[in-house]
Request: fold
Amino acid sequence: MADTDGTPAAGTSRAAGRKPEAVGRAPSAAERALFGRARAAAAQAYAPYSGLRVGAALVTPDGAVSTGVNVENASYPVGLCAERAALAAAVAGGERRFAAAAVATGSGAAILPCGACLQALAEFGDLDLVVAWPAPASADAGALPELRVVALRDLLSTPFVLPGPSS
Ligand SMILES: [Zn+2]
Reply:
């Protein structure tokens, strides 16, 4: 699952309850369109347990787009995030190189990829991520999330790498 607005759920001890400061840059028109594809895909999410519909879109350097949605399950850990669903669809379609990925909620609320999805995407390089960045803690409660483009490595600076035989 992905982080919604940085607010820890009641009764949890999640350390990441603070809202990150905005990083990255404003998106291009093409990147906004990719975000739109992710948000449109979210309508197809299967999220009967959380109600959090998430869509993701991956684009290759040639402009081919693959989308995915979150697919929840009665056995919660079996659920799949939208980013990894999009990645699986793209790879199944023969794609191996990606320029950017977008992730969006159906409502437009801010969301960032979870750590597992960052790791999954990092397998294919340092993509640009188009996301609705959470408003800073100092912002008004009704502040709208800002669309930002961040490098994957800004969110996951050191991905896991499988050690080689000589390591
Ligand atoms: Zn995820």
Q: What stands out?
A: The mean pLDDT is 88. The radius of gyration is 16 Å. The pocket of zinc ion is lined by residues 2, 81, 83, 113-114, 116-117 (CB under 6 Å).
